[in-house]
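Feature request disguised as a bug: please show the residue count (386) next to Iron-containing alcohol dehydrogenase in the output. Example input:
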Amino acid sequence: MNQQISSYFCPTRIIMGNESYRRLSDFISEFGTSKVFMAVDAALLKTAFVNDIFEMLKAADVDYSVFSEIEPDPSADSVEKALEISRALDAGLVLAVGGGSTIDVAKAVAIVSTNGGRIHDYEGIEKFSIPPLPLIAIPTTAGTGSEVSGSCVITDTVRGLKMSIRHASLNPARIAILDPLALRTVPPSVACHSGLDAFVHAFESFISRNANPFTDAVNIEAIRLISSNLRQLVANPENNDAALSMLCGSALAGMAFGQTGLGNVHCMARFIGARYHLPHGLSNALCLPVVAKFNMIANPAKYAAVARAMGCNVEGLRTLDAARLAVEAIEDLCDDLGIPRHLESIGLKEEHIPELAELCYGAGYNKWNPRTTSVKDFVALFKQAF
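Example output, currently without the count:
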């Protein structure tokens, strides 16, 4: 058990279940406002799910405005455009219907609406103190866990970097609605990549140096839910049981990883995703097998628990042998979902590896990753994945 001082906190009220979104107008009324700014994924605007939400808001006499110009890595410019629409309405509440990017824009609008200035002013940890506008989030992908996490990520296109705005108590949504019907329009590739992103959140948070008994409890359940339902959801987006399990698994991981930090998978994915313009979840999936194998010797007992959660029979095995089953189970999961085994297939150039390794080492993930990793180690990891 980690002997350093740590904590666990999640302020979000979570509503889950089939057709739970139909209670939305009741939740809005709790905040005493009739003016709602909506951030909506553009791909969802003409879906029956979102149109039903529009009709519910009209029936409840809610005055709402919609912003949907949201990029995969949302920019500060998008936040400014969204903020103008929200201010014109004088919104008292923010509603997000979409994936992590949509929820992040909604969070940014909520923060600046009450604290003033620009979202750039709040880059870092707890740089604002006034509670944002209340946020209700309905995630339509099971991946980022942004609805319950204390961070949002917005791209500063001028500086060419991603700003992380973090506040454990003020940044999560006030209410998160986890409805499996929200996942029905997700393409299989998006379900796959976002689901593996959620798995990596749970896995890396579980083996983090900063893990504690509370994060362990939510992460191991997240690992179980995701590993036993992701294949089914990718195969059939109308599988409500799998969809709800994935939403819950993603949210559980989201409750933990912001408090424990992540590891080498996210570190490597961060830089190959930026260099080769890959979806974040795919970047993670490409790096996951080699990093899982590399980190195994740092905490075999945790790996044995992962193997058990992923359905492996570890009865009577030595801890190290059980740990190896976790690595095999992770490789099987990626193979079953069609994740390429080689970074070369997505355009990585071998001559870029030394530079990527230096960037990874300089990013400082050794404070979270269970196995201390040198530049030489990162070079070896990239070459193994190449």
